[in-house]
Design goal:
This protein has 147 residues and is mainly alpha-helical. It has six helices and no strands. α1 packs across α6. The longest helix has 31 residues.
Length: 147
């Protein structure tokens, strides 16, 4: 008797490529809101705790990602549909991206600080962390993080 395999295929180059594009656009949106929030608190020396700044930065990163996705989708659909689609993006992917970026920031700088040295590490961690999930989601459900 031949047993049918339900093994998941992690070797599809096309899906890895598409999931990389989706992850990149999520990273652009999320990192903008996140890093601008941290930078604002840093420049203005606002005395919030690192945890409070990071939580606000993560929230703003997700909001800026939804705004960017809505703008991108306006080329393909009407505003109401674009907003609905943008809100339907994977929060798991965005939250994992935000956590990875902020944990990297804390590990390298010791707190909510942005400088040219830490940014590449934050972006790399932010990209690599959700990328396999975005691949899985795209392969399994025919959708990705951003679109």
């Amino acid at each position: 008797m031949i047993k049918k395999s339900n093994a998941f295929n992690w070797k599809c180059k096309h899906t890895w490529g598409q999931s990389a594009i989706n992850t990149f656009w999520c990273l652009v949106g999320c990192s903008f809101g996140d890093m601008m929030t941290i930078y604002y608190f840093q420049v203005n020396a606002i005395p919030w705790s690192t945890l409070s700044i990071m939580a606000l930065a993560m929230f703003n990163g997700i909001v800026s990602s939804i705004i960017l996705e809505t703008i991108i989708l306006l080329k393909q659909m009407k505003l109401k549909s674009a907003i609905k689609t943008a809100f339907g993006m994977s929060l798991i992917s965005m939250i994992s991206m935000e956590l990875a970026m902020n944990i990297t920031d804390i590990l390298i700088t010791g707190g909510a600080k942005i400088n040219l040295y830490v940014i590449p590490f934050m972006l790399t961690a932010g990209f690599l962390t959700p990328w396999p999930y975005n691949y899985w989601r795209l392969k399994k459900f025919g959708m990705g993080c951003c679109g």
